[in-house]
Amino acid sequence: MVNVASVEKVARRKEEILQAAITIFSEKGYYSASIADIANILKIGHGTIYRYYKNKQAIFDAVVNSILQKLATVVQDEPPETNSLHEYQEQIIRISDRLISIFQADQRIARIALYETPEGNKDTANHVSASFLLFSKFIQEYMRNGVDKGFLRQNMDQEIAARIVTSMIFETIKAASMEGSDEVLVSRWRDEIIQIMIGGLGV
């Protein structure tokens, strides 16, 4: 029989380690951070960390996964079912605003997700790259819906367009996180993305 109390205790300890790791990775960066740094925050022996995570890379991967899960909920809550250009525009605004709010609510995860990914580590770099492409796939589904319903351009290269829009959204998140919670700045970025997406750059 499963000991529920024991399972909950393990889950709590893993979450405590994860939160401490988020703080350390965001402050020191991946390469400068150590298991001992994480243990010091929790006031436990660094050997205790290894009961729950194999090494620093495993902790970082768990941190990245927790961030990606937060982002995934945003697109999962926004099915590609809009019926007009206006509805599509409003949906992109909602998605952008929710993503921005996630990173503004916790500056630590913004620094990790947008700046501290260890590029020298092939596994983690591939993981983050695959996640970016997965997010682009969601955006592509929104575009395919618009093309099928006739309110988006029929000859659009949906795969490339989705990657471009995803890049613009994440650049907005980066700017909002880096320069603070200035709503005017966020609105400028968001509004210009919509203008480029819907109206292009022409007069």
Characterize the structure shown:
- With 203 residues, this protein is mainly alpha-helical.
- It has 2 domains: 1-53, Arc Repressor Mutant, subunit A; 62-199, Tetracycline Repressor, domain 2 (Orthogonal Bundle).
- It contains 9 helices and no strands.
- The chain has helices at 4-28, 35-42, 46-49, 56-76, 85-105, 107-115, 122-149, 158-178, 183-199.
- Helix 1 (4-28) crosses helix 6 (107-115) and helix 4 packs parallel to helix 7 (122-149).
- The longest helix has 28 residues, at 122-149.
Instruction: Enter the CATH topology name of the largest domain.
Output: Tetracycline Repressor, domain 2
User: Helicity range of the residues?
Assistant: over 70%
Which value, in Å, is the CA radius of gyration?
Answer: 20 Å
Q: Which band does the percent of strand residues land in?
A: under 5%
How far is the N terminus from the C terminus?
70 Å
CATH class of the largest domain: Mainly Alpha
CATH superfamily of the largest domain: Tetracycline Repressor, domain 2
* Number of structural domains: 2
Q: How many strands?
A: 0
- Note the total helix count: 9
Provide the low-confidence segments as ranges.
none
SSE series: HHHHHHHHH
Biggest β-sheet description: none
Give the CA-based shape: elongated
By oligomeric state, this entry counts as single chain
- Which CATH-level-2 architecture of the largest domain? Orthogonal Bundle
Mean pLDDT: 84
Structural class: mainly alpha
Notable features of this structure?
203 residues; mainly alpha; Arc Repressor Mutant, subunit A; Tetracycline Repressor, domain 2
